[in-house]
Specification:
The structure holds two protein chains of two kinds. Chain A has two domains: 54-383, Thiamin diphosphate (ThDP)-binding fold, Pyr/PP domains (Rossmann fold, 3-Layer(aba) Sandwich); 398-427. Helix content of chain A is 36%, strand content 7%. Chain A has helices at 84-109, 123-132, 146-151, 156-164, 197-210, 229-240, 273-276, 289-304, 335-339, 345-355, 361-383, 409-424; strands at 138-140, 217-222, 245-251, 254-255, 258-259, 280-285, 310-315. The longest helix of chain A is centred in the N-terminal third of the chain and has 26 residues, at 84-109. Chain B is of the alpha/beta class. Chain B has two domains: 3-216, Rossmann fold (3-Layer(aba) Sandwich); 228-352, Rossmann fold (3-Layer(aba) Sandwich). Chain B has a five-stranded mixed β-sheet with strand order 9-11-10-13-14, sandwiched between helices. Chain B has a four-stranded mixed β-sheet with strand order 5-7-6-12. A three-stranded parallel β-sheet of chain B has the order 3-2-4, with helices on both faces. In chain B, helix 3 links the parallel strand 2 (39-43) and strand 3 (68-70). Chain B is globular, with a radius of gyration of 20 Å. Classes of the chains: A alpha/beta, B alpha/beta. At the A-B interface, helix 12 of A face helix 4 and helix 13 of B. The complex binds thiamine diphosphate (TPP). Thiamine diphosphate (TPP) sits between chains A (144, 192-194, 221-225, 250, 252, 254-256, 318, 322) and B (44, 73, 75, 97, 101, 104).
C-alpha cells in the first residue's frame, strides 16, 4: 500500500516529551502551611441577579463566596440575614452531626459494625444547604452528607439501626452502613458507586420541570468523583435541559489518599468545570455555613424561576480519615487539618452567634452535653435491636425480598434451599 | 499444587520467602516492573499510598511516578488510558479498586480491549492486565463483595484469571502481564491475608505455615489455561476457584468419608477443559462451586460443558453450589455465602444418586 500522508514537517529542535504526574505539597511528617492559598476577604464577592446569564459571572467560579469574617461577623452581599433562632438550629444540627459521627466511629472500633465514615469539618456543606432548601426538595447525597438527614430531623435511632444492620433496620440489613435511604425526608438511596447520583438528580429535576412541579433537586459528590463520567453526563443534561438542579462538589482536598490534583485541581477550580457546560458556577467557603446557605438559596431561587442549574464548589477540608478503613497519617501531613485556614464550621458559627449576643460558652457546653446524652440514649435503644453479626438481625428470608416486585420461581426455590440449609446446620 | 512442586524442584536454589497473597501480588508486580520497562502500574490510590489493600506498597518509591502512579477516579478513563498506553507499546497493569467498581469501565473493556486485536486484524492489541479484588466475606455490603467474573467470561476476547494461593497469584500474575491479550485478574480479597474455609465464626487464619505461601522471590510463571488438582479423588469432581477452593477443601476434609477430586480452575478463559473431562470421566460425578450469583454464572457454562463432553460417564446430575441470585446482602452475608453446609448437602445429594 502506498501512503498518501503528506511529508512530515521538518524536525524542530524539540526537547523530549515529559509526563506530568501531580504531587501534593505536603506528605507525612512535613510542615504544612496554606499561606499561599488565595482566600478573598469575607464579603468581597458580588452577588449576581437571580436571572443573570451564567456568562456574566464566570469570575465567581475562581473566587470564594464568604460571609463570616475572621471576627465572626457576617458581611457583604451574600449575608443571608437569618434570625438568631434559625442560626441556633443550624449550630445544633452541625453539633449533632459531629456527636453522631463520633459515637458511630467508636461503635465501629468496638466491633459493633463493619464500617463508618465521618464528615468532620464538612458539616456545613450539608447543613447550610439543608436549611436553604425546602423540606420536599429532593436530595441525592453521597455517603458524606449525613448532615442533610440530621438537619431534616430524621431519627438518629433509625440511622443507627441501618448502621448496625439490625432487626429494626428499615433497609432490612441489605446495605452497607451509612448508605441510608429516607424517602419521607426526600432523601434518595445512597449508592456506594461514586457519582451515580449526579445524573439521577438531574433526571429527577427534569421530571419535576416536565410536570410543572415546584420542587427542585440537589446533589453532592466529592471532588475526586468529578472525574467519573457520570459527573460530566449530569452537567451536559443539566445544561441542555436547564434542569432545576443544584450540583454540589464538596472539595475536601482528598479522595482517600489522592489529593485534589488527581481530579484536576492543579489547573483550575472545580466550580470552573461548570463554565464549559454553560452552567452558573459558584465557588464557596465550605466551612462558612452562612455562605453555604446563601449560595444554596441563590441557586435554589434560580432553579425555581426556570433559570436552570447551578454548580457549587464547596471548598473545605476532610479533617479525618476517609473512613474507618484508612489511616490518613500514611499519606498526608497531620498538620494540614490543624492549619486549615478556613477554620471549623461549628466554631465559626458559634463565634458569630456569641458576637450577636445570642449565644454563650455555657449554652454551647450545655448543648454539647445534652446532644451527647441524647445520642448515647439513641445508641442504647438501637443496640437493643441488635448490632452487626450478633444476636438480633433481620429474618434471613429478607435477603430474597425486593430483588423484584414479585418473587420469581427461582428465588422462591433458593429461599427454601437457604432455609433448609439453616435447618441442616442446626441454626 | 503439582506445578508448585515442579517449579520448586526445577529451580536450582530458588530463593523462597513466605508471602501472603498480597505480598505475592506485590512481588509479581515488583519482578515485572524490574524486568520489563514497558510495565506500568496505575489506579486509584496505588501510588504513594500503595493501594487500599497494600498490593502496590513500596512500588512507586522503587520505580518512580512514571511507572507507578495514582489516577483520577474514573474506571472508564483508567481502562481507556491503559488501552492507549498499550497501543503505544507499554504493558499497563491497571487496578480497579474493587470489582464492584468495574462497571463504569465496561464499554472500554468489552467494546474496546476485547475487540481491538480482532477488529484491527492484529494491528493493535490491548496487552493490559486489569487487577481487581473481588468476592465477599468481609461485611463489605453490595458494593465491596461482588463476583462479576461471569460478565467477562461471556464476552469474547478477554482472559479471566483467579488465583487461590500466594504461589499461584504470583506465577499467574506474571504470566498475565506477559500475555499479549487483555487479562482480567480477579483477586479473592478474603484470601489476601490468609486462607478462609468458610467458618466465619472461627478465628481468622493467616498464610503463615501454609505450603503454598512458600513463594520464589524471583521470576516464574504459571501458564494461563492450566488448572491445578488440589486433591485427587475417585468419588466426585469438584470444580471451583478463588476463595471457594479453600472452603471446598475444608468441607471435604471435615466430611471425612468423601473421596473428592478438587480442581482449582485458576483460569476461566481459556479453560483447562482436559483437566475437567479427564477427572469427570474418572469420577462420574461433578459439583461446581462458585460464590457468584447462580443464573448465567460461569458455573452454568461449566455445567453445559461437562454435560456435552462427559454425558456417558455421568452417574448423577451435574450440580451447582453458588451464591443466591440476590445482591450481596450486607448483614445477612453468612446466610448468603456458599459455605460448608451448602457444599456438604450438595455432595451428599450427588453421592446418593
Ligand atoms: C465507581 C467507584 N470507584 C471507586 C470507588 C472507591 N472509592 C470510594 S470513596 C473514593 C474516594 C472518593 O473521593 P471524593 O469523591 O473526593 O469524596 P470524599 O470521600 O472525599 O468525600 C473511592 C475511590 C467507588 N466507591 N466507586
Amino acid at each position: 500500500m502506498t501512503s498518501n500522508s503528506p511529508a512530515p514537517p521538518p524536525i524542530a529542535n524539540h526537547p523530549p516529551l515529559r509526563l506530568h504526574v501531580p504531587e501534593p505539597r505536603f506528605r507525612p511528617g512535613e510542615e504544612a502551611s496554606f499561606d499561599g492559598l488565595d482566600i478573598p476577604a469575607a464579603g468581597s464577592v458580588r452577588q449576581p441577579e437571580i436571572g443573570a446569564a451564567a456568562a456574566e459571572f464566570r469570575d465567581l467560579a475562581y473566587t470564594l463566596v464568604r460571609v463570616l469574617d475572621d471576627e465572626g461577623r457576617a458581611v457583604g452581599p451574600w449575608h443571608p440575614h437569618l434570625e438568631p433562632e434559625r442560626l441556633r438550629r443550624m449550630l445544633r444540627a452541625m453539633a449533632l452531626t459531629r456527636v453522631f459521627d463520633d459515637i458511630m466511629f467508636r461503635a465501629q472500633r468496638q466491633g459493633k459494625t463493619s464500617f463508618y465514615m465521618k464528615s468532620l469539618g464538612e458539616e456545613a456543606a450539608s447543613i447550610g444547604a439543608a436549611f436553604a432548601l425546602a423540606g420536599d426538595d429532593m436530595v441525592f447525597p453521597s455517603y458524606r452528607q449525613q448532615g442533610l438527614l440530621i438537619a431534616r430531623g430524621w431519627s438518629i435511632q433509625d440511622m443507627m439501626n441501618q448502621i448496625y444492620g439490625n432487626r429494626a433496620d428499615r433497609l432490612q440489613g441489605r446495605q452497607l452502613p451509612i448508605m441510608y435511604s429516607a424517602k419521607d425526608a426526600s432523601f434518595f438511596s445512597i449508592s456506594g458507586n461514586l457519582a451515580t447520583q449526579f445524573p439521577q438528580a438531574v433526571g429527577w429535576a427534569m421530571a419535576s420541570a416536565a410536570r410543572g412541579d415546584t420542587r427542585i433537586a440537589a446533589t453532592w459528590c466529592g471532588e475526586g468523583s468529578t472525574a467519573e463520567g457520570d459527573f460530566h453526563s449530569a452537567c451536559t443534561f443539566a445544561s441542555v435541559y436547564r434542569a432545576p438542579v443544584i450540583l454540589n462538589v464538596v472539595n475536601n482536598q482528598w479522595a482517600i489518599s489522592a489529593f485534589s490534583g488527581f481530579a484536576g485541581a492543579e489547573e483550575t477550580t472545580f466550580a470552573a468545570r461548570g463554565i464549559g457546560y454553560g452552567i452558573a458556577s459558584l465557588r464557596v467557603d465550605g466551612n462558612d455555613v452562612l455562605a453555604v446557605f446563601a449560595a444554596t438559596q441563590w441557586a435554589a431561587d434560580r432553579a425555581r424561576t426556570n433559570h436552570g442549574p447551578t454548580l457549587i464548589e464547596l471548598f473545605t477540608y476532610r479533617a479525618e480519615g476517609h473512613s474507618t478503613s484508612d489511616d490518613p497519617g500514611a499519606y498526608r501531613s497531620a498538620q494540614e487539618a490543624r492549619n486549615w485556614p478556613l477554620g471549623d464550621p461549628i466554631a465559626r458559627l458559634k463565634q458569630h452567634l456569641i458576637g450577636l449576643g445570642e449565644w454563650n460558652e455555657e449554652r454551647h457546653a450545655a448543648m454539647d452535653s445534652e446532644l451527647a446524652a441524647q445520642v448515647r440514649a439513641d445508641q442504647k435503644a438501637a443496640e437493643a435491636n441488635g448490632i452487626l453479626g450478633h444476636g438480633l438481625h433481620q429474618p434471613l428470608e429478607m435477603m430474597f425480598e425486593g430483588v423484584f416486585e414479585e418473587m420469581p420461581w427461582h428465588l422462591r426455590e433458593q429461599r427454601q434451599a437457604m432455609l433448609d440449609e439453616q435447618k441442616a446446620a442446626g441454626l | 499444587m503439582s506445578d508448585h512442586q515442579s517449579v520448586l524442584a526445577q529451580a536450582q536454589a530458588p530463593d523462597l520467602a513466605e508471602m501472603t497473597m498480597i505480598g505475592a501480588i506485590n512481588s509479581a508486580l515488583d519482578v515485572m516492573l524490574a524486568r520489563d520497562d514497558a510495565v506500568v502500574v496505575m489506579g486509584e490510590d496505588v501510588g504513594f499510598f500503595g493501594g487500599v489493600f497494600r498490593a502496590t506498597a513500596g512500588l512507586q518509591k522503587r520505580y518512580g511516578t512514571h511507572r507507578v502512579f495514582d489516577t483520577p477516579i474514573t474506571e472508564c478513563g483508567i481502562i481507556g488510558v491503559a488501552i492507549g498506553m498499550g497501543a503505544y507499546g507499554l504493558r499497563p497493569v491497571p487496578e480497579i479498586q474493587f470489582a464492584d467498581y468495574i462497571y463504569p469501565a465496561l464499554d472500554q473493556l468489552v467494546s474496546e480491549a476485547a475487540r481491538l486485536r480482532y477488529r484491527s486484524a492484529g494491528e493493535f492489541t490491548a496487552p493490559i492486565t486489569v487487577r481487581s479484588p473481588f468476592g465477599g466475606g468481609i461485611f463489605g455490603g453490595q458494593t465491596h463483595s461482588q463476583s462479576p467474573e461471569g460478565i467477562f467470561t461471556h464476552c469474547s476476547g478477554i482472559k479471566t484469571v483467579i488465583p487461590a494461593t500466594p504461589y499461584d497469584a504470583k506465577g499467574l500474575l506474571i504470566a498475565a502481564i506477559e500475555d499479549n491479550d487483555p487479562v482480567l485478574f480477579f483477586e479473592p480479597k478474603r484470601l489476601y491475608n490468609g486462607p478462609f474455609h468458610g467458618h466465619y465464626d472461627r478465628p481468622v487464619t493467616n498464610w503463615s505455615g501454609h505450603p503454598s505461601a512458600q513463594v520464589p522471590t524471583g521470576y516464574y510463571r504459571i501458564p494461563l489455561g492450566s488448572a491445578a488438582v488440589w486433591r485427587e479423588g475417585m468419588d466426585v469432581t469438584i470444580l471451583c476457584y478463588g476463595t471457594m477452593v479453600h472452603v471446598v477443601a475444608d468441607a471435604v476434609a471435615e466430611m471425612g468419608d468423601v473421596d473428592a477430586e478438587i480442581i482449582d480452575l485458576r483460569t476461566l478463559i481459556p479453560l483447562d477443559i482436559d483437566a475437567i473431562t479427564r477427572s469427570v470421566a474418572k469420577t462420574g460425578r461433578c459439583l461446581i462451586v462458585h460464590e457468584a450469583t447462580r443464573t448465567g454464572g460461569f458455573g452454568a457454562e461449566l455445567s453445559a460443558l461437562v454435560q456435552e463432553r462427559c454425558f456417558l460417564h455421568l452417574e448423577a446430575p451435574v450440580t451447582r453450589v453458588t451464591g443466591f441470585d440476590t445482591p450481596y446482602p450486607y448483614s445477612l452475608e453468612w446466610a448468603y455465602f456458599p459455605g460448608p453446609v451448602r457444599i456438604r448437602q450438595a455432595l451428599r445429594a450427588i453421592l446418593d444418586d
